Amino acid sequence: MNLPFVGTAMGGAVQYDLPDNYRRWLVTLEGQRVVTETKKFRKNRTDAQNRYWWGVVIDILSQHTGYEPEEMHDAIKIKFMPVEKVGLIAGKSTTHLTTIEFVDLIERVQRWAAQYLQCYIPDPNEETKEELQRRIEIEKKG
Asked: Side-chain half-sphere of 43: how many Cα atoms within 13 Å?
């Protein structure tokens, strides 16, 4: 089992964010040979990005094309993140994309949808015309 321990490299050593957890884990490996792997920290896509992906991007494209959401998600992965596996083309998982990589994917999909499908996908937190109108009406009443 691999457990990630995050910290900051300082003065040739790692200052762990939760050093007690790291020490407790090492105790469970007492007497065993271990391998330590250190790599640069990458922040994976956020839950909010994932909700926007499925709730807005994939939902709009699915409705526009008639594909089921899972089919649309798979088609987008193959189109924008193809990887060859056992002689077949598949789509790279979005699960391990960084926040920046995920933003880049969303922007590429928005441009493609606008250009080839004539389908508008709003930016995150962008109010639709209907939402803006409702908010204005509520503010007028209140």
From this structure: 6
Helix (H) or strand (E) run with residue 16 in it: strand 13-16
pLDDT (tens digit, 9 = 90+) per residue, 45-99? 889 999 999 999 999 999 999 999 999 999 999 999 999 988 899 899 998 899 9
Report how far residue 121's alpha carbon sits from residue 58's, in angstroms, rounded to the nearest whole number: 9
Exposed, middle or buried by CB within 10 Å (0-12, 13-18, 19+), for 142?
A: exposed
What is the C-alpha to C-alpha distance for residues 123 and 96, in angstroms, rounded to an integer?
22
Largest CA distance in the chain: 71
Quote the CA–CA distance of 116 and 103 in Å, as a whole number: 20
